[in-house]
Write a structure and sequence with these properties.
The chain starts with a helix and ends in a 9-residue tail after the last helix. The protein is globular. The chain is about 50% helix and about 0% strand. By secondary structure, the chain is an all-alpha fold. The chain is built from three helices and no strands. Helix 1 packs across helix 2. The mean pLDDT is about 90.
């Protein structure tokens, strides 16, 4: 649970960068598209920001819209991606 809280904090920071405004108080049930009014471009920008912050690699070919329903589903996705072995040269 603590790791998910850390991920939610990283999502808040990334969203603040992408949306160019302070984003705080995110909970796992907040919906990315309906509540935060993100679009596909802002989601991709957020993922790129999270890749840099969390030292992960997101493969756009393997994205599933179900992972972006809410902050909670995004956190679960990021936990899975973060636990996968990274390809050689990733993050360099």
């Amino acid at each position: 649970m603590e790791k998910e809280n850390t991920i939610v904090a990283q999502v808040e920071i990334a969203l603040s960068e992408v949306l160019e405004r302070k984003v705080t108080g995110l909970t796992e049930d907040i919906r990315l598209f309906e509540d935060l009014h993100l679009d596909s471009t802002s989601v991709m920008e957020m993922l790129m920001e999270l890749e840099d912050r969390m030292d992960i690699v997101v493969d756009p070919e393997n994205l599933d819209m179900d992972d972006f329903q809410s902050v909670g589903t995004l956190a679960g996705y990021l936990l899975r991606v973060g636990s996968e072995p990274q390809p050689q040269g990733a993050g360099e």
